[in-house]
């Protein structure tokens, strides 16, 4: 079970970091903004689903190993926090961004640009918070 736990952490957190730190900046450096944004959006959506599956597995595994006393552990709350970030970004913020993108395509960018930039910044901050929680989770000995 330790091996499966390690693979799950690596797949979710490693994927998050690779997409956010390496892949997305490369996309925007070699593709036009529209194409890069579309591909990055698909990648962030894919890693969100990976995060939901892996996060639930890690949470169930943690509770299975530590029982209800695990609720007092920082590891438990880090997993919950990362899952919440995923849920908020994927099901609340991303649909708003997608809707604003549609509006931007149908009207002048200047009219809707501020809303898009604001929601994109909120999404980026949530992703950063999730990445920092992931770092804390990886560095814990009881994970």
UniProtKB/TrEMBL annotation:
The keyword Transmembrane applies. Residues 10-105 form the TMEM205-like domain. Its main location: membrane. It comes from the Bacteria. The chain crosses the membrane at residues 12-31, 43-64, 76-97, 117-139. GO terms for cellular component: membrane. Keywords: Membrane, Transmembrane, Transmembrane helix. It is found in: Membrane. This is TMEM205-like domain-containing protein.
């Amino acid at each position: 079970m330790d091996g499966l736990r390690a693979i799950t952490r690596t797949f979710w957190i490693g994927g998050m970091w690779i997409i956010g730190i390496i892949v997305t900046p490369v996309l925007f450096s070699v593709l036009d903004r529209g194409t890069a944004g579309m591909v990055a959006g698909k990648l962030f959506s894919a890693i969100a689903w990976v995060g939901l599956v892996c996060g639930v597995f890690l949470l169930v595994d943690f509770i299975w190993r530590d029982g209800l006393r695990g609720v007092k552990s920082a590891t438990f709350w880090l997993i919950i926090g990362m899952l919440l970030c995923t849920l908020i970004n994927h099901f609340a913020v991303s649909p708003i961004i997608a809707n604003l993108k549609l509006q931007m395509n149908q009207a002048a960018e200047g009219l809707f640009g501020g809303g898009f930039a604001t929601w994109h910044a909120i999404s980026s901050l949530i992703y950063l918070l999730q990445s920092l929680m992931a770092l804390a989770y990886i560095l814990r000995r009881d994970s």
